[in-house]
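Support request, priority: normal
Reporter: lab tech (M.K.)
Component: structure prediction queue

Hi team, I submitted a job for 7-cyano-7-deazaguanine synthase from Macrococcus equipercicus yesterday, and the status page still shows it as pending. I've pasted the exact input below so you can check whether something in the sequence is tripping the parser. The sequence length should be 221 residues. Please let me know if I need to resubmit or if it's stuck on your end.
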Amino acid sequence: MNGQLLNDKALVVFSGGQDSTTCMFYALKHFKEVELVTFNYGQRHALEIEVAERIAQDQQLTHHVLDMSLLAQLAPNALTDHTMAITAENDIPNTFVPARNLLFMSFAGALAYQIGARHIITGVCETDFSGYPDCRDIFIKSLNVTLNLSMDKDFVIHTPLMWLDKTETWALADSLGQLEYVRNNTLTCYEGIIADGCGTCPSCLLRNNGLNAYMKERETT
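Reply from support: The job had stalled in the queue. We restarted it manually and it finished. Here are the results:
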């Protein structure tokens, strides 16, 4: 969008994690009005909802929390079954929740319709997507067409992180002047530890390796 401020409303799909919080600040830079939507689907840590609510309050943004607890009924996975260890099979981790992004984006579209938001922003990423098929660019493009046809609206789904690795995502947060905020206030860790997390779960390793690489780059420039 070349840095211009669009005179439009945007809805950010928001978990309170690194990626969605970076997307929130991206939206605040590029859109006149921003609202957030968080989905409560029985995720591994209820703290995720609290973190999202706290950040929304910090930024004085309207925050919608939608009940999606039916997801836990559809398929066993390590994000909704707290007794399962996190593993990977056939290159797809058992933290994958089938149809999660399909349902989330559909409900985000319905909410966007109600609040008059044309733009929907999500932090899905194909570069560091952990093998999740519903984070791929082709899926988002297909879903964008489907949402528009289903509601006869001209929605635009934005994926500012789609082709960024974690190092580049930290660079984006820094360019928005929010690196320290994102680092200290977000929850990415599968063990429910805010900020730098446990340091050993797959999510923490991805996040912290990216941060360390970016900080080294920044020191040399």
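Helices lie at 18-30, 47-58, 71-74, 100-115, 137-151, 166-175, 179-185, 202-219. The longest strand covers residues 31-40. Let us know if anything else looks off. Ticket resolved.
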